[in-house]
Amino acid sequence: MQTIKMKNNVYLLNGYSMVGPLEGRGPLREYFDYILKDDTLKEKTFEKAERKLLQSIITGAIDKANLKIGDIDFFFGGDLLNQIVSSSYTARELEIPFVGLYSACATMAESLALSAIFVDNGLANNIVAGTCTHFSSAERQYRFPLELGNQRPPTAQWTITGGGASIVSNIKSKVRINAVTFGKVIDFGIADVNNMGAAMAPSASDTIKAHISNMGKKIKDYDFIATGDLGKLGSEILIDLMEHDGVKLGKNYADCGCMMYDKTERVFMGGSGAGCSASVLNSYILKKLLKGEFKRVLLVSTGALMSTTTSQQGETIPGIAHAVELEYVTPIKPVKKAIKSKEKKND
Amino acid sequence: MQTIKMKNNVYLLNGYSMVGPLEGRGPLREYFDYILKDDTLKEKTFEKAERKLLQSIITGAIDKANLKIGDIDFFFGGDLLNQIVSSSYTARELEIPFVGLYSACATMAESLALSAIFVDNGLANNIVAGTCTHFSSAERQYRFPLELGNQRPPTAQWTITGGGASIVSNIKSKVRINAVTFGKVIDFGIADVNNMGAAMAPSASDTIKAHISNMGKKIKDYDFIATGDLGKLGSEILIDLMEHDGVKLGKNYADCGCMMYDKTERVFMGGSGAGCSASVLNSYILKKLLKGEFKRVLLVSTGALMSTTTSQQGETIPGIAHAVELEYVTPIKPVKKAIKSKEKKND
């Protein structure tokens, strides 16, 4: 039951992505909907900037899907700030029912998975699912004051500024949500908060294996398998772990954190943050799916579930990974045209 | 679509509650499953104590329902600690898929509502939904170091030590889950973190009105309506707000926070915390429902969605309330007996 197959009633209607200036210089720049010139968004604090970013992303997604806020039944989301305040305060502006979630950087897949279940079972018509992160608010909440200019070890990742939101809908589109897998919390004993890729790799491996096995598929059945934000080291560990279990991740595998930045940027192991897989899904992956360049994609968002308190108290870092399978479906004939062609036949 | 009616496939099979010594001296003492003598649970920190408390509650609920961990498909939960670490680290021990949630003190109803939807739609057989809080870990995370002995203003509430978990199941029991309502985030401009009841009352009012209207019911159709943790002042505000809208909450209304403590305890406006409605639901309310003393109950858990950072940055406090409607159903004849009595008839 870990993997839930949809009854083919649910689509990813559209998505919207917005990133910061550093991310906007990266290899995916042509795919993002909006690249910020100023990562403060003219707000006085980075936390307020993050909130404004999420609000812009959510309304951006609704607009892009040609919907109005009144068409949206629920907002499913969460973020990395304590008490997921970016999402809660965004929900305050939306005035629609809010389902608050937390899976750290796996929140995009969790939101998408639950939204898909609601729509597939006829409990909602349209849901907006989204999340984002801000480098500066994450850095000062999880690590050190920005002013301290602390050095980073080589295994560290860089929390992206950016995020994305998807409209999950029963309106037919070219991208169907096939199935979702909810992950288990797995801890291999990594205690170094500057090596989160290693902490999350075991859960990514577990979820991918569970998903493909439950779906009766193989790795090669997917054009693209994307993990959330394992980074360079984490994704190498994932490849090793899976190979050890006889599953070979091939050229169709990539990590959103590794895809985010140009090689010349000093971001060490690459991008991380809930916004990482959210922005890559709702830009690069979605656009490739909409064009039919990807036929079937497995998005595996990965989260490290520690807090600063657990780390200070000597705890290791548990990881989680949730997966969503997306499929390109051939365009449906518009109803009007179909009726017309029928009328013609009858004439 | 804010209210989702079940197709009558989902039951609250059983529940388990555990509270601290102070709560165990209160009026509900005879209903709790376990009262701690030592609120440290022999752990070195209050955060570790909270985690052990939640683990005990979750395993307690599974045991009490005569199930094994292998029978449970998902754990739905969250808590008040940053990054919901009590729940995530509990999920690590359970080794089953975990759906992490956050609605502050509305988390019990959110967990229950999502679990009910999964089971009602055949996506799971048994789910454990639960949460808890610990006075000392909440106090030092949200307010002041305990050692400071800070004075509390008269509108303050007391985060309970305790919590509860429910087994949501397709196994028929005497308590059916009828419907759930997901709340909107509402903010009336209260900025005082020592007056959370006032901040949450508007969302409680909104959710109760939405639920009874969507269900085509009236207040008097419920034997018992319980808000999560508005406390004394908050529940008076709720009564006023609803009366203003022409809805009169009668003697069938009570607040879990007000029910928790003896009047002689110095807990000001009463109990609060995610564990508050979780422990009252899984003790007093559930036992009354199982005996048929309550026929229909509306549980409305209420959450204040601020963080210490938003408060420090001058933000007001948004509230949310999720509702779950529970109904006593006449006991189903056990299958064996039914067959026997049929055989007798045929004889």
Salient structural properties:
homodimer, globular, 37% helix, 14 strands, 347 residues, alpha/beta
What does this protein structure show overall?
The structure is a homodimer of 347-residue chains. With 347 residues, chain A is of the alpha/beta class. Helices cover 37% and strands 21% of the residues of chain A. Chain A has a six-stranded mixed sheet with strand order 1-9-14-13-10-11. In chain A, helix 7 links the parallel strand 10 (224-227) and strand 11. Chains A and B meet through helix 3, strand 5, helix 4 and helix 10 of A and helix 3, strand 5, helix 4 and helix 10 of B.
SSE string of chain A, helices as H and strands as E: EEHEHEHEHEHEEEHEHEHEHEHEH
Oligomer: homodimer
Low-pLDDT sequence parts of chain A: none
Strand order of the largest sheet of chain A: 1-9-14-13-10-11
Considering residues with a beta carbon less than 8 A from a beta carbon on another chain, report the largest interface and each chain's count: A-B, 54 and 55 residues
**How much is the average pLDDT of chain A?**
95
